[in-house]
Amino acid sequence: MNQSELNEKAKQAVICHDVEEAVSVAKEAISSGADIVNLVHNGYTEGIRKVGDMFQEKKVNLVQIMASAEAMNAGIDILTPEFKKQGKSADGDIGRFIICTVQGDIHSIGKDIVAVMLSISGFDVINLGRDVPIEDLIEAVKDYKPLAVGTSALMTSTMINQKIIEEALREKGLRDKVITNVGGAPVTQQWCDKIGADVYSENASECVSKILSILG
Q: What is the dihedral of CA 138, 140, 144, 150, to 10 degrees?
């Protein structure tokens, strides 16, 4: 099976929330020596993006989205040790990156894709999940001492929490110790500048490239 066929099978496994097939494709990719980074980008994450589009079009519900995310993660879990073997992931050598969806927001697909891309790029990703209370995020920053903190807000009513997080980090004397990245559908560069965040990223690839650029 060639790369394109593997990518398509991974994509369809995610869309159909078929965990068994997602795992099978990952194993086949490893045994055949396929490009596993390509598989993640153009297979699993393409599938989850398609599911996200379908959700926006009201063609699938939240339960189906979570099932698709489970399939994506199952496949990537199989690939993760191989990334480390091949040196495609530095196993956290770059540093820690805390990521979450802000309090009051239950969306997670975009944030999970970013987390996967960061992990592949060599960050030790601490994914706190969705609807994360601000105080929990602040405590995580204290405990894990990350290089960067990324927050996602998918609604205009919850993006205000990104501003509150910036203020809380300053209040606790932590703001100068981390790079802050903001993203999400309603978030813009203007919003990033307004609240004093360091980086606005529109998608996963942009997040990785911008953070790596800052870190040099």
A: -70
pLDDT per position as a tens digit, 171-215 = 999 999 999 999 999 999 999 999 999 999 998 879 989 999 999
The answer as to CATH 1.10.3720.10 being correct for domain 3-86 is no
CA distance 135 to 146: 16
95-215 adopts what CATH topology?
A: Rossmann fold (3.40.50)
Model confidence at 87, pLDDT cuts 50, 70, 90, reads low
* Closest by CA position to 116, among listed 210, 204, 6, 199: 204
The pLDDT of residue 46: 87
Residue 88, pLDDT score? 55
Torsion of CA 174, 149, 167, 203, to 10 degrees: 160
Bridge-based pairing state of the strands 179-183 and 148-152: parallel
Output the six-digit token pair for 35.
Answer: 């490009």
CA distances for 111 relative to 11, 140, 198, 207, angstroms: 18, 17, 18, 11
| Torsion angle defined by CA atoms of residues 48, 54, 55 and 56, in that order, rounded to the nearest 10 degrees | 120
Cβ atoms within 10 Å, residue 47: 27
